[in-house]
Automatic annotation (TrEMBL):
Transmembrane helix recorded as keyword: no
Protein name: SDR family NAD(P)-dependent oxidoreductase
Homology family: Belongs to the short-chain dehydrogenases/reductases (SDR) family.
Matches recorded under PANTHER family: OXIDOREDUCTASE-RELATED (PTHR43391:SF94), RETINOL DEHYDROGENASE-RELATED (PTHR43391)
Pfam families: adh_short (PF00106)
GO molecular function, one term: oxidoreductase activity
Organism for this UniProt entry: Nocardia gamkensis
Alphabetical keyword list: Oxidoreductase
Secretion signal, residue range per the UniProt entry: none
Start and end residues of each Ketoreductase domain: 26-200
Length: 307
């Protein structure tokens, strides 16, 4: 059923063929391009004929990807949370290729599991600084290029933007903010002939996912609470295919896997019911207590947590 809904929406929302965007001979900027989704997308778009700027804080990882490509690849080390550094990075891309047609703001991080009561405020600031401010820092200095080229911007949000956020609220907050940023950008750029879209993913099989859900006992228990089909995973290649397809269609939104689509469409109703159920679920209560106890055991070993 969800696949039918996705196909119908795609037909209704896809632009006419003459407005599609072929990345061949175009210049694409991708942040977080050294690993995961960013790397898979860079490789795909490069193979399709694009020139690709690989921006990552990990110089070695991005350089390894660049070496596997060729002269149409540019490696730039930059921290997306550094506004001046990102402005300089975008300038380097412009100097090298003379234009920028597509920007994909992909870089992101997840916090250590913690409740709002027990989290380190610095962890909250770090996630917002990279996942939200970093998106602004990536997109803003390239917008005049995007307008001139009548190009396209993709901001990578997540199904976490509309999913419950207990024990990981900074990430959910950040992805909800990115969603709203992308929606605003879509409408604003339409007035000048350019486009923007928001990419949403469920669980993507990345090192970040393994560290959060698989290699952490509490993360694994949290993942076990997800019902089918919300617990389905996709590969980084699947995610890259989704973004690449969205660029070609100048899509306002892409969601992968498609089983998340009904949730996205009916989130207003679903979340009212879901939040109520989660607030009364003893399994969730136990998980929250365990998360808080672990944080306190690390930071204040002798302080008990009230039950």
């Amino acid at each position: 059923m969800s696949v039918v809904v996705v196909d119908l929406l795609r037909q209704l929302l896809s632009p006419p063929a003459e407005h599609r965007l072929d990345v061949r001979d175009r210049v694409v900027v991708i942040t977080g391009a050294g690993t995961g989704i960013g790397r898979a997308l860079a490789e795909k778009l490069y193979a399709s004929g694009a020139s690709v700027a690989l921006i990552d804080i990990d110089q070695a990882a991005a350089a390894a990807v660049g070496r596997s490509m060729g002269e149409r690849a540019l490696v730039v080390r930059a921290d997306v949370s550094d506004r001046i550094g990102m402005r300089e990075a975008i300038s380097r891309v412009r100097e090298r290729f003379g234009r920028i047609d597509v920007v994909v703001a992909n870089a992101g991080v997840v916090p250590e599991p913690a409740t709002i009561r027990t989290m380190n405020p610095g962890d909250f600031d770090r996630v917002i600084g990279i996942n939200v401010t970093g998106v602004f820092n990536t997109v803003h200095p390239a917008l005049e290029d995007i307008v001139a080229a009548k190009g396209h911007v993709v901001v990578v949000s997540s199904a976490a933007a509309f999913a419950p956020g207990m024990a990981g609220s900074p990430y959910m907050v950040s992805k909800a903010a990115v969603e709203q940023f992308g929606r605003a950008l879509r409408v604003e750029l339409a007035a000048v002939g350019a486009t923007a879209g928001v990419a949403y993913f469920g669980i993507v099989d990345t090192a970040m996912t393994h560290g959060t859900l698989d290699e952490d006992d509490l993360g694994a228990d949290l993942g076990a609470l997800l019902p089918w089909p919300l617990n389905l995973r996709i590969t980084v290649r699947d995610a890259a295919e989704s973004i690449a397809d969205g660029i070609a269609r100048r899509a306002a939104r892409t969601i992968a896997p498609p089983q998340w689509e009904p949730y996205a469409l009916f989130r207003g109703v679903i979340n009212v019911v879901l939040d109520s159920r989660l607030a009364r679920d003893p399994r969730v209560h136990d998980l929250i207590h365990r998360v808080e106890q672990r944080v306190i055991d690390v930071d204040h070993p002798v302080t008990p947590i009230p039950r």
